[in-house]
Amino acid sequence: MSYVIGLDCGGTHIVGQLWNKDSRELITEVKSGPGNVVMNYALAISNIVNTIQEILDKNNTIQIELILVGIAGIESSSKTNEVISLLTNTFNVHVEVISDAKLALLNGLEGRDGSLIISGTGSIIYGRQNNTFLRVGGLGYILGDEGSAYDISKRALQQVLNRIDANKKSLLQASLFSGLNAHTKNEAIAQFYTNDRKENANLARIVAKEAENKNLDAIDVLDSCSKSLANQAITMLSQFEKPIPNTIALSGSVLKNNELFNKKLRMYISNKFPECEFVNITSNNAHGVLFFDNWKQSN
């Protein structure tokens, strides 16, 4: 029997999983605190080490073949080799460290070539073909993050404010002002600038609910945002060599919870690349450790 450990280390929490590689059976799952090495390196490393140790303590008779760790912020931190060395010396096991986004790409595509679209608080698109990685977007909420929850919230409020300037009223005004605890235009603007990024991104839930209730202005915002994200996906697909890998994995809270947005995104991409096949990621990305051999074999 071969056993492998996968860790998905994000900004808010870590999920660690022990898998039987042969039967693809999940043996143990452990969760812990934040794992973003840029936000707090010492805390992230401590949580990663403790997560692995807890898995090993619960399965102390098992020989581990590989520990694959996907860590938020690892590529920009330039600490990949440092983390590999630390974990290898601590556990005396073969360790591989990649970004959490690449782990999602690995998991969503099960080690095959293709693309990954992530739309949560922010957005980004990754692609892989013949062991070459591509990236589009992911510029952050000030410069980009098109089609993210933050983008949806921002565009919805912009629509409301522009309508007010034109002495018109958006069908989103009442619900958005309520979400901002505002009664006037100036109060709404002040609260939006006071809120942190996640608080503003949460307003996208209001837009989604309004769209479900056939609010045409909400539907218009979701259509515009999904089209912007689709255009980035089309940019990614256009960079691939032919034959284009046509599988696109979809991840993130917006794509998971907003059915209309998901549907429109697929439509806009399919209009340009009708051969594309879409896969919604339903498993935690720590599951991607099962497919890491596929990447190694293509090197």
The coarse overall form would be globular
How would you sum up the major sheet?
5 strands, mixed
* Beta-strand content bin: 15-25%
The main sheet orders its strands as 3-2-1-4-5
Helix and strand run: EEEHEHHEHEEEHHHHHHHEHHEH
Instruction: Output the CATH class name of the largest domain.
Output: Alpha Beta
Unreliable segments of 5+ consecutive residues: none
**What Rg is obtained from the alpha carbons, in whole angstroms?**
21 Å
What is the count of DSSP helices, taking H or I runs of 4+ residues?
A: 14
Number of domains: 2
At the fourth level of CATH, the homologous superfamily of the largest domain is: ATPase, nucleotide binding domain
Calculate the terminal CA-CA distance, rounded to whole Å. Answer: 25 Å
How many DSSP-defined strands? 10
- Could you say what the CATH architecture of the largest domain is? 2-Layer Sandwich
Q: Tell me the helix content.
A: 40-55%
The helix/strand class is alpha/beta
The overall pLDDT, averaged over residues, is 92
Q: Under CATH, the topology of the largest domain is which?
A: Nucleotidyltransferase, domain 5
Organism: Companilactobacillus zhachilii
GO molecular function: kinase activity
Protein name: N-acetylglucosamine kinase
Pfam families: BcrAD_BadFG
